[in-house]
Design goal:
With 710 residues, the protein is α/β, with parallel strands linked by helices. It is built from 30 helices and 10 strands. Helix 19 runs antiparallel to helix 20.
């Protein structure tokens, strides 16, 4: 006997004494055995009220459905929630309404839905019951039958294969083909070209800022101002699904309507993804694709099913960082092994790229970038027991990306790229010990920024790190105080002397009380404070603080430590020239040789000592010696740091002085003119260093003398 059941039919088999066995066959619920209820209407959760932006891609798609044109396949790819289905829906309405095409819509999210939907397409195009029965029963190739009737269609058509996030399903039986009678549009998260040979790929990303704000205004026009809508749109990363849910939430409040201002405040209070998803229609069946908190879980589940748990682990690790571009070099480190094998990181990253969960960006440094709402969703859904190792690994990766002892050097773009990720880590981490490790790494990142001349970023990083660290560790914690001290050092370099003096003085006082006067952190604040006091003209106070710092560093670190030698080199610049000769039994004048012996001739501290020694020679009237040493230092600075670094410009300013002092006034003016122009460009026209350079240039051009200060 060879009985078969169709739809809700039953098969009864009897043998012997007529014992009957009844077999119940149940579908998976995604599409009934008889096919979808309709392929002529798009199966979308919430059609867009107005499709914002997308004009360029719609123009290209619209041209493909004009007249009798056919034979094309378009693949709309992008991350979940970016509006691929909305674009396809809009094209569907245009094709059927304005261009008279037959519109056919099939869910390609799984095998049963695809098969049932495509057989329903064949029925729509004229396939008979017998042919369909044979195809359902496996007696004839189902895909061949469907495309046979699509090719014979008397009317041109548009076929949309929606949510084709498993392209291998389309490959089974060659469900995706071309036909001269119509155009095929596929929506998918899978971006790899290998899945779509011969198709035209079109990326669908987030909306432009103005259009994103308009989506909120379309859905909730009376909830707030255009400026408030703009801020919320940015907060939601301009992701269409998030904007639609937010607008739906604002528009459906009845008893106590929310304003956009209230919504923005609640988002900032860390309600985040849970609040966004409250905008879903409460009366509709929950669909993960229509909720930002669940839509990406579909892909994570697929990773697990395919034996790619490393992709999930990598995405959870990325969710500890920011949505800004993340240098790929950060991930290519042995420290990642605590979360996923380093050898599997490449495959995991490719899987994320293929699923549009991240993208590669080139901004002078190769980076990966993921959407903020995606990262927030993944972070919120990460199991609690997985969070500590993820946080620890993220901190170790950051720590390894920052030099253990940052040195002066040219501008390094990777440091600034790390800043948002370092601060995001501090915001996410709850464990105090891990927070402390993160704060130490972020403070060292601020030092690295400072020493490459990026003072604005150094200040912002240290200030934010101090604020975030204080919430976890308290205001008097060693690491919090160190971050505050670095902020003060950066303020000095930014020319904000009064603020720097106030901050460094306060922090040094607290450090003396909490850590002790000879603690290395206290001494570091003292070194920074004397620089500020000296530039404020309070030389006696500056000398007193500097002498205390030198003595403390000698006791704690030893006479040959680079920081001890650095502070002694500052004495060369700060003390009156006559006092330097007698200082430390005359040993201060031989400091460059001592630094060369201990640290080497090219060490930053050695170069600084030689620079300050040349300044001393100039003040002592030894102009030939000063010029020779200054030229050597300037050449070294140019090689190491480039022409615009603050120390290079300081050395060239001293070189211009020596030129004028030796009677080469035109050469000195030429050098100083360039120095002033470069300072205006890098530091700003109002920076004290720039103003001092302009005054000195004025003195040279007027012939009034050599000026004061290096």
């Amino acid at each position: 006997m060879d009985g078969r059941a169709e739809d809700r039919g039953r098969v009864f088999q009897a043998s012997g004494d007529q014992h009957i066995t009844e077999h119940h066959h149940h579908g998976d619920g995604s599409a009934g055995p008889g096919g979808p209820d309709s392929v002529r209407r798009p199966a979308v959760g919430r059609p867009p009220a107005v499709l914002r932006d997308r004009a360029e891609v719609l123009a290209r798609l619209r041209a493909s459905v004009a007249g009798e044109r056919g034979g094309e396949v378009f693949v709309l790819y992008g991350m979940g929630g970016c509006g691929k289905t909305a674009v396809a829906y809009t094209l569907f309405q245009l094709a059927t309404g304005e261009h008279g095409r037959v519109g056919l819509w099939v869910s390609a999210s799984d095998r049963s839905s695809l098969r049932a939907g495509m057989l329903a397409v064949a029925a729509d195009r004229g396939a008979g019951d017998g042919e369909l029965l044979a195809a359902r029963g496996g007696l004839r190739p189902a895909a061949d039958l469907v495309w046979q009737y699509l090719d014979r269609s008397a009317e041109p058509w548009l076929l949309v294969l929606d949510n084709a996030d498993e392209p291998e399903i389309l490959g089974d039986g060659s469900w995706l083909r071309t036909s001269p009678r119509g155009t095929v549009v596929v929506t998918t998260r899978r971006s790899a070209a290998r899945w779509w040979p011969g198709a035209e790929l079109q990326h669908i990303g987030v909306l432009p800022r103005a259009d994103a704000a308009r989506v909120l205004r379309d859905l909730a026009p009376d909830s707030g101002t255009a400026q408030e809508a703009d801020r919320i749109a940015e907060r939601l990363g301009r992701l269409p699904l998030a904007l639609t849910l937010a607008g739906g939430f604002l528009s459906q409040q009845v008893l106590d309507p929310w304003t956009m201002e209230t919504y923005e405040r609640r988002l900032d209070e860390r309600e985040g993804v849970a609040l966004i998803d409250q905008g879903a229609d409460p009366l509709s069946q929950e669909d993960p694709r229509n909720l930002v908190g669940l839509t990406w879980q579909l892909t994570l589940d697929a990773f697990e099913a395919r034996g790619l748990p490393e992709a999930t682990a990598l995405l959870r690790l990325l969710a500890r960082f920011s949505s800004e571009p993340l240098p790929l070099s950060l991930l290519d480190r042995a420290e990642i092994g605590a979360v996923l094998p380093r050898s599997r990181c490449e495959a995991a990253l490719r899987a994320l790229l293929d699923q549009s969960l991240t993208e590669l960006v080139e901004i002078g440094v190769r980076c990966t970038q993921s959407h903020g709402v995606l990262l927030d969703s993944v972070a919120a859904a990460t199991p609690a027991d997985r969070v500590p190792p993820l946080d620890t690994t993220a901190v170790r990766l950051l720590d390894a990306a920052v030099p253990a002892v940052p040195d002066s050097g040219p501008y390094e773009p990777r440091y600034r790229l790390l800043v948002p990720h370092a601060l995001a880590l501090l915001r996410r981490i709850g464990d105090p010990r891990t927070s402390g490790d993160a704060l130490a790494a972020v403070t060292r990142l601020s030092v690295a920024l400072h020493r490459t001349g990026d003072y604005q970023a150094a200040w912002e990083t240290a200030r934010s790190a101090g604020d975030l660290g204080e919430r976890r560790l308290g205001p008097d914690h060693r690491l919090v105080l160190a971050a505050r001290s670095r902020a003060g050092r950066a303020l000095f370099r930014l020319g904000r002397y009064a603020e720097a003096e106030q901050l460094l003085g306060r922090i040094r006082t607290v450090q003396e009380a909490v850590l002790g006067a000879d603690d290395p952190d206290t001494l570091d604040s003292g070194h920074g404070l004397q620089l500020v006091l000296g530039n404020l003209g309070r030389h006696d106070e500056a000398v007193s603080v500097l002498r205390s710092t030198v003595a403390g560093r000698r006791r704690v670190l030893g006479p040959d430590h680079p920081l001890t030698l650095r502070s002694r080199a500052s004495l060369l610049a700060l003390l009156p020239a006559a006092d330097i000769v007698a200082e430390d039994d005359g040993a201060l004048l031989s400091l460059p040789e001592e630094c060369t012996r201990v640290l080497g001739p090219d060490h930053t501290v050695t170069l600084g000592a030689r620079h300050n020694h040349a300044w001393t020679s100039y003040r002592l009237g030894r102009f030939d010696a000063a010029e020779q040493e200054t030229r050597q230092v300037t050449d070294a600075y140019l090689r190491r740091f480039g022409p615009d670094h603050v120390v290079t410009l300081s050395a060239r300013q001293l070189l211009s002085r020596t030129q004028v002092a030796r009677g080469h006034v035109a050469a000195g003016i030429e050098i100083m003119t360039d120095v002033v122009a470069r300072r205006e460009h890098s530091l700003g026209a109002d920076h004290p260093f720039t103003a001092a350079g302009r005054r000195l240039l004025g003195e040279f051009t007027s012939g009034r003398g050599r000026g004061d200060g290096a």
